[in-house]
Design a protein that fits this description.
The protein has 337 residues and is an alpha/beta fold. 16% of the residues lie in helices and 35% in strands.
């Protein structure tokens, strides 16, 4: 228990660090399309941006030719400070590529992404396109995890600027509408039971304003509904402000996106912050960052990184969330024991 409270104190201290020193409010994780504090296992998918995971990483599958993978497929310019793929544990890759995958195959940057692994072994099949493979871990996942959990909890403590509207459709599922008037920042609080039973999610806020959607509850499911902006669905709206939207699952230990067994998928417009959540992501895609504890599935991630600005709570407010952090940390401990 003493370690739990020490961890909570650390999270509070991290949350008090001025965010102006960060290129993104999400820290290093903001530069990665998918950022997991523990393991990742993906197949038959394309993650257009960089990927980082603190545990073991499994990418692709050699059982059938169509169960491969692509990581950093739209990262055309390599950055030595931001490797295209980082895993903190052991690495296994089959039938895929790391690095730019949309240009001339003869170009020097084509499928030439840098790969880091921190474990004792890297099993990489010959059918994987990549650049340098380096043993080491350039990311301090424990530090980044503390920062992300502090940010998630502090954002979750913010008072909503508006009240969401819930109406039940003919099928008994919720039609969710978020209406905000601020040109800079709008925030809402939704119970996970509501969003898990949604059939439509409409956003009506000024373009360019940051939208924070705090979602409470220890489990949540996002499946079989569409996001709308200006009454146009996200998959048909080139002006959907994905980069200014973030869904903060500040209590969730499990997050299910899409459906592995059915043909009912989902397209998430905006980023997801769920640093305590084991994420299962099947039959869908996300236009934004995907940040969680672990990830498994074939969900696709598009390179639309979060670029909003969320206000930081007052220090007095941050102190009040310490007990909540202790409870979540204890839940994670019990789950792992």
């Amino acid at each position: 228990m003493r370690n739990v409270f020490r961890g909570c104190l650390l999270l509070l201290c991290v949350a008090l660090v001025p965010l102006s020193v960060q290129a993104s409010q999400l820290g290093i994780a903001g530069e990665y399309n998918a950022f997991l504090l523990d393991s990742i296992s993906i197949f038959s998918t394309d993650i257009e941006g960089r990927v980082a995971a603190g545990g073991n990483g499994t990418f692709g599958n050699n059982e059938t030719s169509d169960e491969g993978f692509a990581v950093a497929s739209k990262v055309s310019v390599s950055n030595p400070l931001l490797p295209e793929l980082v895993v903190g544990g052991n690495l296994k890759m089959e039938n895929g590529s790391v690095g730019y995958n949309y240009g001339d195959p003869q170009a020097p940057n084509y499928q030439n992404g840098t790969v880091y692994y921190g474990g004792s072994k890297a099993e990489i099949a010959d059918n994987v396109g990549k650049g340098a493979v380096i043993q080491g871990t350039p990311i301090d996942f424990a530090k980044e995890g503390s920062y992300l959990k502090g940010i998630s909890s502090s954002w979750g403590s913010l008072s909503p600027t508006g009240v969401p509207n819930f109406e039940k459709g003919a099928d008994g599922r919720y039609l969710i509408t978020l209406t905000g008037n601020s040109s800079t920042f709008n925030s809402f609080l939704i119970d996970s039971k509501v969003i898990s039973n949604a059939s439509k999610f409409t956003i009506d806020v000024p373009f360019g304003s940051t939208l924070l959607v705090n979602i409470s509850g220890t489990e949540a499911t996002l499946s079989n509904f569409a996001f709308f902006y200006d009454d146009i669905p996200g998959d048909k709206n080139p002006n959907f402000p994905d980069q200014y939207i973030i869904y903060n699952f500040f209590q969730a230990g499990k997050l299910t996106i899409g459906d592995e067994d059915e043909e009912t998928g989902i397209k998430i417009d905006g980023s997801i912050l769920a640093p305590w959540a084991d994420i299962e992501f099947y039959n869908g895609d996300i236009d934004g960052n995907l940040i969680g504890f672990s990830l498994i599935g074939d969900g696709e991630a598009h390179l639309e990184l979060f670029n909003g600005q969320v206000p930081v709570p007052e220090p007095a407010t941050l102190i009040l969330i310490g007990s909540g952090l202790a409870g979540i940390a204890a839940l994670r401990q019990r789950k792992n024991s």
